[in-house]
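COURSE: Structural Biology Practicum
ASSIGNMENT: Worksheet 4, Part C
STUDENT ID: 0417
INSTRUCTIONS: Below are two proteins. For each, the amino acid sequence is given first, followed by its C-alpha cell string. Answer the questions at the end about the second protein only.

PROTEIN I
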Amino acid sequence: MIHLLTALILTASVPAAHAEGPAPAASAAPAAAPTVGEGSIVRPTFVVGDEKATAGTGFFARIGGATVLVTSHGLLGPNGGLPTLLKPAEVATVTQVVLTDAWTGRGTAKAGPGLVVADAATVVESPSRDLAVFRVNLSGFDTVATPTYTPPAPLALATLAPKVGDIVWLASPVKGSDQRVHAAKVGDVSAAALYVDFVEKIDLVGTSGAPFLNAKGEVVGMCVGGGLLEGVVIGAANPASSIASRTTQALGAR
C-alpha cells in the first residue's frame, strides 16, 4: 500500500503563495548531486503482533548519539496495510521492523520497538508531525558486510534548512528510473513543512519516509507525500529540524 497525497490534499496544505502557482521546474538537475551508497535507505516491514506490513521507505540516521530508523507515521495504518492508524503510544507495539536495502534488497539491521513521538500524526494534520522513529541496536557483527547483509550507514541531519530556490534531492527508488537521487527545487520552507517542485515528472509511489538531501548528503527533510499540481510534481516533507527535536524528545522519554 502507498502513502501518496492527492493534489487536492496538497493544495489545502501548501502555503497560499505556493498553491496559487508553483515555481517553474528547473530545466535540468545540477551536477553536484549527492552520492547515496548502500545501507542508508531501506524498505521497512513493520511487525505488529501477528500482522506484518511492508510499505514506503525509511532511512538510518544518527540523532542524539543514537542510531535510529526514521520513517513516516502515516505508514503505520491503512496506507501501509494495517487495519487502523496507530496512535502515538501504540507505536511501541511495533515490536520489530525488518529492513532491506532499498536498491539491492539485501538484509540489514533490524529496528524496534518503536519510540513514542508524542504528537505523531499523518501529513494531513501537519507534515512536521508525520514521523515514526525506531531505535536500532547494533552489535559488532551488525557492522560487517556479507554477500547477503548490508551494514547500516546512518545519515546526518542538516543543521541549516535549505532556502527557497535551492536544489535538494529525494533519495529513493522510483518507478521507471534507475537514478538513486531525484532533484527538486525548494518552493517553500518553514519549521512546519518543506515543499518542493520536482525537476522531472517522477512517480512518488512508495517514497513516503525517504529523505531529501542537500549537496553534502545531509538530510534536510523526509518525504511525507506528494502529487501532481498544475503539471508539476509537488513533494511535501517533514523538515530536519522537526525530525531532530521530536526524535531527541522521544529518545529521552524511554
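PROTEIN II
(use this one for the questions)
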Amino acid sequence: MKEDNNREQELREENNELDVEEMKSSLGSKMSNFWYFYKWQTIVGVILVIGIIVSLLQLADNTRPDAAIMYVGPSYLTVTDKKTIGESAQTYMIDYNDDGEKVLTLLDINVVTASGELAAYAYQMNAEAQKRFTTEVVAGDSLIYILEKSFYDILVEQNCLAKLSDVLDADMIPEGSDEYGAQVKDLPFFTQEGFSSFPDDAYVCIRSAPDDSKPNYGRTLEYWNSNRVLFRSVFAYRSK
C-alpha cells in the first residue's frame, strides 16, 4: 500500500514537471512567433517611446543659451575656469531669448598636439575629439570658436567661418590677423580672469551667418546675432 502511494506521488510530480515544461515551451513558442511577426513594429515602438522620453526631458530643462563657445585645444579648463568665464561673459552679452538670464555655454574638447614622429600618435588620440568637433560644427549650439590651428584650418578650408571684416569694424581687427580669425595673444579680452586660461596661439573666430539654402539645425539669424554681440565685444575690448 505504501509503495502504491509513493508511486502515485512520483507520477503526480512527473506530471507537474511535464506541465511546467509544456508551459515553458508554449510560452517560448508564442514569444518566438510574436517576435517573428511583430519584430519591426516592436523596435519602432521602443524607439518612439525613447524619443518621447528624451523630448520630455529636454522640455523639462528648457534653458537655452544666449551664446555658445566651442574650445578645441590642448589646455584643460577647470570647473572654476568655466564658471568664471560664464560669469564674466554676461557683461558683454544680451538676453537673446528674453528669459531673464544671460547664459553662455562652453564646450571644451581637449586634443593632443604633436609634430614629427609623434604626429601619427596625436592623430589617433584625437579621433574621438574629431567626431565631437564635427558634430558640434554641423548641428551644435556653438557659433563662436576658439581653436587650435589645425582645427581652425579645417573650418577655413570648409568655408564655415565669417570673415572678420564682415562682422567687425576695421579698427577692431588686430594688426596681422588672419582673414577669418585672430589669435588669443592679440586680443586684450583674454587677459581677463577665466579667459586667460585659453592658449595664446589659439584662433578666435565665428561661424558664418545662417543661410536659408542650407540646413541650420535650429540656428536662427537672431541667435547668430546674439553670438555676434559677444564676438564683437571680444574684439572691441581694450585693457584698462
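ANSWER KEY EXCERPT:
Q1: Residues 67-236 form a domain with the D-Maltodextrin-Binding Protein; domain 2 fold (CATH 3.40.190).
Q2: Residues 193 and 232 are 19 Å apart (CA to CA).
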